[in-house]
Amino acid sequence: MQYSQFGQKFKKQTGIGQLMHDLGDPPPGACMLGGGNPASILEVTEVWKEILSKQIESGSLKRILGSYESPAGIQELRECVASILSEESGTRISENQISITNGSQNAFYLLLNFFSGKFENDRNKKILFPILPEYIGYTDQTLEKDSFLSFQPIIQEIDSYSYKYFIDKEKFKTFSDWRKQAGCICVSRPTNPTGNVITDAELEFLITRAKEADIPLLVDNAYGYPFPGVVFEKSSFIHKPGMIQGFSLSKLGLPGVRTGFVLGDSETIELLHKANSVINLTSASPGQYIALELFRSGEWRRLCKNVILPYYQKKSEFARGVIRQNWSSNLDYRIHQSDGAFFLWVWVKNLKLTVSELYPILKEAGVIIVPGKTFFPGSDQSWSHREECFRLSFVKEEKEIEEGILRIGRVLEKFSK
Ligand SMILES: Cc1ncc(COP(=O)(O)O)c(C=O)c1O
């Protein structure tokens, strides 16, 4: 079969494709510390059950399953989301600034292509990642090749076990050409894969740079504010003109309903609605109706604050504890400060093999992680750091996390210099 360039793009295995494949087809007995599924938290699933039972009993299923909603999303839900985001950010946000999409992956596919590729006068523009590593799922989304521009971070070691990435503000001065090349700036907060939460001051810095260059700042809050709010360190939800922000129900525990939200200027939101009707006709209804119930009742706040956040915080502490207590002192490793999300990002300095080469060996040893290499879009290929890091999810039950970490430790020790 002959495929267009667009079709060809999907013929090669993508980073996100490999990840989703291993997630859906795990090797028997393997400890699955790779994937991005949220945990199944009993108290959370009870809330979904309650909402669904109420919908069945009230006879509203006919509307939920049997009709197309507007491509903009259900009006009342847009108002509800606008009201939550207004309250949380302390700025006035109207429903004209809210779009409802089939998950945030779908939203970012559209947004990244709105702001990269060919512009007027045949000028090509790219997406600027102001700090690496960055989410694997952006990497293959752009229609044009070579669409990323990225800045390496400043690496600050905190103690002999941990470190944190910071935005290298100097890069914005020394590489001033970014203003001509970038069509938008994009950052996930917390960042998948590192669990880094860029500070409020760093976010304000990016807002100012984007404003100066007259381009939007895209912020992906899939794990962050206000829901599911898996942020362990102190920081704030900020919204200012010039920002376009993504949100999702997935990490609250509802990845299957494929519901996401975008907050932005009304012109971009209108464009999203139009694109949504061309590509999807409209967004799926079940997630929208669950969200309506959850947001209207205010129950989301209790779930996020009292159940989801403490659950992941405890898991993060547990996973770090297992590593520190069990990995050999010969290993020269650092864990990125766990500011939020569901992952630990581990940097091992003295290995005989690259982490990509270790991946099949780890798989053989019965543990799945995600090698770091794919989280560096647009980076200098010779930067060895890319091959010294990996992502480890702490979503699974403690027993599986512990066993997986022990298996990783044994393999790393074998291949340490
Ligand atoms: C940072 C980030 N953004 C967006 C997504 C996409 O999530 P969804 O499309 O399920 O909302 C993910 C999924 O793992 C993610 O980690």
Explain what you see.
The chain is 41% helix and 16% strand. It is built from 14 helices and 16 strands. Strands 2, 3, 4, 5, 8, 9, 10 and 11 form an eight-stranded mixed β-sheet that branches. A hairpin with a 4-residue loop joins strand 6 and strand 7. By secondary structure, the chain is of the alpha/beta class. The mean pLDDT is 95. The protein binds pyridoxal-5'-phosphate (PLP). Pyridoxal-5'-phosphate binds next to helix 6.
Order of helices and strands: HHEHHHEHEEEEEHHEHEEEHHHEEHEEEH
N- and C-termini, Cα separation? 48 Å
SSE-based structural type: alpha/beta
List ligands, each type once: pyridoxal-5'-phosphate
Protein name: Valine--pyruvate transaminase
Cofactor: pyridoxal 5'-phosphate
InterPro entries: Aminotransferase_I/II_large, Class-I_PLP-dep_aminotransf, PyrdxlP-dep_Trfase, PyrdxlP-dep_Trfase_major
Domain Aminotransferase class I/classII large: 59-407
List the helices and strands and how they pair.
Blueprint: H1 5-9, H2 15-24, E1 31-32, H3 42-57, H4 61-66, H5 75-89, E2 98-101, H6 103-114, E3 117-118, E4 124-129, E5 148-150, E6 154-157, E7 162-166, H7 169-174, H8 178-181, E8 182-188, H9 200-213, E9 217-220, E10 243-248, E11 260-263, H10 266-280, H11 285-297, H12 299-326, E12 333-336, E13 343-348, H13 355-364, E14 367-368, E15 370-371, E16 389-393, H14 398-414
Parallel strand pairs: 1-14, 4-5, 4-8, 7-12, 8-9, 9-10
Antiparallel strand pairs: 2-11, 3-4, 6-7, 10-11, 12-13, 13-16, 15-16
The structure holds pyridoxal-5'-phosphate.
Pfam families: Aminotran_1_2
InterPro entries: Aminotransferase_I/II_large, Class-I_PLP-dep_aminotransf, PyrdxlP-dep_Trfase, PyrdxlP-dep_Trfase_major
Cofactor: pyridoxal 5'-phosphate
